[in-house]
């Protein structure tokens, strides 16, 4: 089984569905309210674990009931939570999600996730990272922590996937050091301002993978642009689709599927995930992937 370390955020999601989005100063009625588990780090950990990865989670939650529930949920999914720290007198992270016409808008409150500072990269954490085949990161913990971990992994020749979401600027040094960078279109524009997509992906062949929502994902294989098309489904809730994609991508890469095939695998996982409610609620297991009409024989996970 391939070993994956996920360093990132964990949160509780508070989800409202509505047929009408309020304007400034306006109150409208919603259709439903639910809580679910989220945070990009936790989501990607669950996605990879369900698809056959052996995942360790690194990060911080609050010393509150939500923090206890977050840890309990990850452990129930099979994720190793030995390196999840509970921070006293700090609230757990939260995301406040509005579902409207099959899409979502999200406000993230990092809280305890901001406590994942560079000093957490101590000897114990370094030793744990060095036993991993791949390290996954996102942008819901401090940037200086991400940079410290990318530097360490680069020095130790550990592969990394950086999902630069939410969007913020990235140094060219970090882009050069990560193994895979997986922005969506909006994030790509912010990271590479005033540059065309075709120009950017040629600069980073087999590294830069731009997710395009319902259109699929785009990368440059060293010879040509490759658009890996998505699988057409009717979405119920798109929350967590990108995280499912990244978790599945990690599993595909570590199992030697090849980049294009790994992206197809990730697209299939994401297409299954959006047909159910909640960031983690729809993330498929390997058995569910195999039940799909689109599953390919080459996708054998060790």
Short description:
By secondary structure, the protein is α/β, with parallel strands linked by helices. The protein has 10 helices and 13 strands. The termini are close together.
Give the key terms.
302 residues; alpha/beta; six-stranded parallel beta sheet; four-stranded mixed beta sheet; 10 helices; 33% helix; globular
- First-last Cα distance: 6 Å
Helix content: 25-40%
Characterize the overall form: globular
Structural class: alpha/beta
Instruction: Note the main sheet.
Output: 6 strands, parallel
Order of strands, widest sheet: 5-4-1-8-9-10
What Rg is obtained from the alpha carbons, in whole angstroms? 18 Å
Strand elements, count: 13
Low-confidence runs of at least 5 consecutive residues: none
In terms of DSSP E residues, the strand content is 15-25%
SSE pattern = EEEHEHEEEHEHEHEHHEEEHHH
- Count of alpha and pi helical runs: 10
Residue-averaged pLDDT, rounded?
94
Notes on the structure:
It contains ten helices and 13 strands. With 302 residues, it is an alpha/beta fold. The strands form three sheets. The chain has a six-stranded parallel sheet with strand order 5-4-1-8-9-10, with helices on both faces. It has a four-stranded mixed sheet with strand order 3-2-6-7. Strand 9 (159-163), helix 5 and strand 10 (180-181) form a beta-alpha-beta unit. The protein is globular. The termini are close together. The mean pLDDT is 94.
Blueprint of the fold:
Elements: E1 3-7, E2 11-18, E3 32-38, H1 40-50, E4 54-62, H2 65-76, E5 80-87, E6 93-100, E7 103-109, H3 123-130, E8 134-138, H4 143-156, E9 159-163, H5 172-177, E10 180-181, H6 185-191, H7 197-203, E11 210-211, E12 217-220, E13 225-228, H8 241-254, H9 259-273, H10 286-291
Parallel strand pairs: 1-4, 1-8, 2-6, 4-5, 8-9, 9-10
Antiparallel strand pairs: 2-3, 6-7, 11-12, 12-13
């Amino acid at each position: 089984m391939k070993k994956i370390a996920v360093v990132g955020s964990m949160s509780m999601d508070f989800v409202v569905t509505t047929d009408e989005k309020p304007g400034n100063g306006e109150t409208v009625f919603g259709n439903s309210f639910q809580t679910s588990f989220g945070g990009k780090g936790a989501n990607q950990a669950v996605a990879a674990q369900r698809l056959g990865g052996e995942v360790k989670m690194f990060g911080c939650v609050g010393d509150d009931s939500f923090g206890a529930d977050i840890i309990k949920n990850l452990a129930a999914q099979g994720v190793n939570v030995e390196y999840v720290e509970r921070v006293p007198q700090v609230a757990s992270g939260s995301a406040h999600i509005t579902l409207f016409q099959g899409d979502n808008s999200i406000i993230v409150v990092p809280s305890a996730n901001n406590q994942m500072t560079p000093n957490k990269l101590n000897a114990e954490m370094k030793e744990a990272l060095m036993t991993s085949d791949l390290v996954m990161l996102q942008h819901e913990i401090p940037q200086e922590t991400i940079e410290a971990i990318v530097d360490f992994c680069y020095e130790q020749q550990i592969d990394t996937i950086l999902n630069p979401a939410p969007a913020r600027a990235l140094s060219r040094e970090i882009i050069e050091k990560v193994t895979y960078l997986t922005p969506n279109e909006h994030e790509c524009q912010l990271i590479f301002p005033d540059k065309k997509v075709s120009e950017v992906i040629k600069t980073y062949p087999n590294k830069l993978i731009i997710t395009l929502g319902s259109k699929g994902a785009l990368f440059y294989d060293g010879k040509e642009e490759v658009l890996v098309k998505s699988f057409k489904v009717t979405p119920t809730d798109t929350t967590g689709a990108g995280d499912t994609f990244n978790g599945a991508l990690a599993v595909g890469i570590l199992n030697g599927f090849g980049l294009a095939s790994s992206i197809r695998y990730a697209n299939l996982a994401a297409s299954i995930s959006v047909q159910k409610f909640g960031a983690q609620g729809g993330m498929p297991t390997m058995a569910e992937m195999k039940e799909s009409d689109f599953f390919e024989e080459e996708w054998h996970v060790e």
